[in-house]
Amino acid sequence: MNMHFEGSSSVTLLFNFWDVRGPAGMVLSVFVVLLLTVIYELLKVWKITVGEQKQSFIPQPSAPVSFSPEPSCFAPVMKCQEGSSSLTSSPSEISLAATENTATTADTATAAKKSWLLHCLQTAIHILQVTLGYMLMLCVMSYNVWIFLGVIMGSVLGYFLAFPLLKHI
């Protein structure tokens, strides 16, 4: 196998059945490789989009309750001069008070399930992206100038089309 780029119109790409012989076959093969590269770039954006959606389903931990006792309330609660309002703001009462939970258990379970499904989808997209990336690498390793240019132009076109979509996320 040659280890330098050639400009011929005959090459075998990826599999024995993809045997290109002639200019028409080369044009079609370059077009197919270009489309595969555009799909590769779209998969990158789709994976990022799914990751952003997954982040919205992850339940955020509630913020810890912080308090700063006022100087007049360092004494036991009964000796505090501010009345009943100081009872609700004292450290012992705050720790006993029920915290507000905006998400119910069912909502949390649904969010966890959606997050898990989005993670599975993101994994499947990653598998497709890696597989397609290695196939494109092998196409370039055919050392055909036209196939190489098809991959490069597909990457440029895919980036040009796909990455403006990230602004709409």
TrEMBL record:
Keywords: Copper, Copper transport, Ion transport, Membrane, Transmembrane, Transmembrane helix, Transport. It holds the Pfam family Ctr. InterPro entries: Cop_transporter. One of its GO terms (cellular component) is late endosome membrane. It is a multi-pass membrane protein. The chain crosses the membrane at residues 20-43, 116-137, 143-166. One of its GO terms (molecular function) is copper ion transmembrane transporter activity. It is found in: Late endosome membrane; Membrane. Belongs to the copper transporter (Ctr) (TC 1.A.56) family. SLC31A subfamily. This is Copper transport protein.
